[in-house]
Amino acid sequence: MTKRRKFIKNTGIGIAAITVSGLTKASNSMSKNKKSEINIKLGVATYTLRKFTQKEAIDMTLRCGVDHITFKSMHLPLDSDNETIKKAVNLCKEKGLVLYGAGNITMETKEDVDQAFEYAKAAEMDMIIGVPSFELLEYVEGKVKEYNIKMAINNHGPGDDLYPSGVSAYERIKHMDKRMGLCLDTGHTMRLNRDPEQDVRDCFDRVFDIHVKDVTVAKPEGKSEIIGRGAIDFVSFLKMIVDLNYKGTLALEYEAESEDPLPAMMESIGYIKGVLSAI
To answer: For residues 150 and 81, what is the distance between their CA atoms, to the nearest angstrom?
Structure first.
């Protein structure tokens, strides 16, 4: 029996509870006080929608029933002028989306860093999700202090020579400014055969953002999978997020089916909402 089916059976909720918002009237009554305390922000990292235009990415994110978004550069190029950036920001606001960050942004030179922070400032973003080289970390820290924009270093698993795990990034920034932190990727962490839940716990004071994705197996060759169908125990993971009172965003980054990701996105977000509704 899959984890998904076990979860449905053990929590006593049906398929409808996974696919629609909320539980039955009785369940809502029993857990009203507990659920009122849960305010997990859900969003989409638009690398998921890399084959689509900016407007299409916004509309598809909204169709998933979430209201937070981070733009990848194909949806708002890093060299965009202020007018273009403001137009994108206003479109998000009109649609009811919070454009809270951008990335992943590679930073190999000081010019890369300067451009990223100017871009984020113009777009009124709270954070940059990026991968700065080791020698630039102190320079990035200076920009974080100057702009009051957080840096969330993104881990990329096996083959990443800089930050394969969130812990590897944490060890380099844990004594820096408190706005130097992590965007922890659950899928890439699992491909290292590391427990994403434990890594979040170990680095929690610097976890600003979480890229939620499932993978087929806990090995380097693991592929992107719909949340709830893969190797990660997302029921336990989401319970942990609630218990820790996580204040950041769970941003879905689904890397498969780039030409038609929407069904998988909807199922993944629906699964997350179903689990959170049952907690």
So the answer is: 22
Q: Is 76 helix (H, G, I), strand (E, B) or coil?
A: coil
CATH code of domain 40-278: 3.20.20.150
Residue given tokens 């080791």 in the structure block: 134
| Amino acid letter for position 258 | S
255 CB-near residues (< 8 Å, 6+ apart): 47, 48, 187, 213, 224
Answer yes or no: are the C-beta atoms of 113 and 107 closer than 8 Å. yes
Give the integer Cα–Cα distance in Å for 26 and 24.
5
C-alpha R_g of the chain: 18
- Integer Cα distance of 250 and 269 in angstroms: 10
Question: Who contacts 73 (Cβ-Cβ below 8 Å, separation ≥6)?
Answer: 102, 105
Comparing CA positions, the residue from 149, 106, 105 lying closest to residue 127 is: 149
What are the average pLDDT values for consecutive 10-residue runs of the chain, which has 279 residues?
Answer: 46 39 38 57 98 98 98 98 98 98 97 98 98 98 98 97 97 98 98 98 98 98 97 98 96 97 98 95
Parallel/antiparallel/unpaired status of strands 214-215 and 224-225: antiparallel
Q: How many CA atoms lie within 13 A of 224 on its CB side?
A: 18
Q: Domain locations in the chain?
A: 40-278
pTM exceeds 0.90 for this model: no
Q: What is the pLDDT of residue 109?
A: 98
Phi, psi angles (nearest 5°) of residue 185: -100, 115
